[in-house]
Design goal:
The chain is mainly α. The protein has 2 domains: 1-49, Homeodomain-like (Arc Repressor Mutant, subunit A), CATH 1.10.10.60; 52-189, Orthogonal Bundle (Tetracycline Repressor, domain 2). The chain is 75% helix and 0% strand. The chain is built from 9 helices and no strands. It has helices at 9-24, 31-38, 42-48, 52-75, 81-98, 100-109, 117-139, 148-169, 175-189. Helix 5 (81-98) packs across helix 7 (117-139) and helix 8 packs antiparallel against helix 9 (175-189). The longest helix has 24 residues, at 52-75. It is elongated, with a radius of gyration of 18 Å.
Length: 191
Amino acid sequence: MVKRKTGDKLGDIREATVAEVVECGSSAASINAIAKRAGLSVGTVYRYYENKEQLLRAAYIAIKTDLHDLMMAAVGNARNSKAKIRAMWFAVLDFSYQRPQDFLFAEVIMNETILHPDDKQIIAAMTEQSRTIIVEAIADGHVRAIDVQAIITVLAAPARQLGRAAAFSGKEPDPANAEQVFNLCWHAIEI
């Protein structure tokens, strides 16, 4: 094995973890395969992570944080509730195209039962920020006064579907199609 000389071993491990899980699945991924893919020794990986589960959790939380930060940055320039929700929605598509491996990794891991209570609190805090934007949209009269989780489902499912298609194909989502899909979602929740 050829060891790469980099100053970002954690980044190398994360990148290798993502690639291994996307290619082989989370069950088949192993510390040995991840270390080999990263160009590091198995001992180096264990220096940072106690086991595969901890490594998967860390990568998942980092990716979810990156996506959340991108969504919240997009919201920062929005002028009203519709623009905020639209910005978050399109941020998901941008993330899927710009970072397809990370997007697909999150899709694989999101249904795993590996998250610890602390991890779930981190995810819940991020989710709460998104929920708050929807609650504000209901309060200011842009969105129907219905269950917030129902609104999230209506918005998230098509964004994830288009995101998966972009990540698998390596092609940016068709802007006109993405706009049509968003508008359909918006019409489903607007007043």
